[in-house]
Design goal:
It is built from six helices and eight strands. The protein has 182 residues and is an alpha/beta fold. Helix 3 links the parallel strand 1 (41-45) and strand 2 (64-68).
């Protein structure tokens, strides 16, 4: 069993139903800030079942935009994506848009980051959904997440994930609503 299969198997909650037909704000930010450049290989890890983000990015830049998602893409698709990344010596950019926040288990998030590092030849850009503090979420001293109708939501701010990312990556900075690791 591969590490990626293992990580899927040990998660209490699947993220299969968290995929949305929308462009995650992370990709709009990276486009607006000029991070996406022609000729890059971009790997959108956990990019969901829809190609709307791929179409948006590729229609604006001459980029190879690949989506890897173990819950929403076939094993063959995902193996092909990782094969292309490996053949190119890694991805120039890997994005994790609203992925860490739907993984309940800290050890799975850390192991996932370790695995992602194997495919990176540039920077990792991370965003999370920061659930509003409302009656829908139970507040505790640590503001712990909870099960939702679609899976799991950590209900943590982006800065919560910095120590986890720093366990794997030497350089981690927070710029607005994005973590950048490399």
């Amino acid at each position: 069993m591969s590490i990626l299969d293992y990580l899927i198997e040990v998660q209490e909650f699947s993220s299969k139903n968290t995929s949305r037909l929308q462009i995650a704000s992370l990709h709009r930010i990276l486009m607006q800030k000029g991070i996406y450049q022609d000729g890059q290989l971009v790997l959108d890890w956990g990019g969901g079942r829809y190609d709307i983000t791929k179409e948006y990015v590729e229609s604006n830049k001459n980029i190879t935009f690949l989506i890897y998602d173990p819950f929403n893409r076939s094993k063959e698709h995902n193996e092909n994506v990782l094969s292309i990344v490996e053949e190119n010596g890694g991805a120039d950019i890997i994005t994790l848009a609203n992925v860490l926040n739907v993984i309940k288990e800290k050890e799975v998030r850390i192991d996932l980051l370790k695995e992602i590092k194997n495919y990176l030849n540039g920077n990792l850009y991370i965003s999370v959904y920061e659930a509003p503090k409302s009656s829908n979420y139970k507040e505790t001293d640590e503001w712990v997440g909870q099960q939702t109708k679609n899976g799991w939501q950590n209900c943590q701010p982006l800065s919560y994930y910095i120590p986890e990312v720093e366990q794997i990556f030497l350089n981690v900075i927070k710029k607005g609503s994005v973590l950048i690791a490399g």
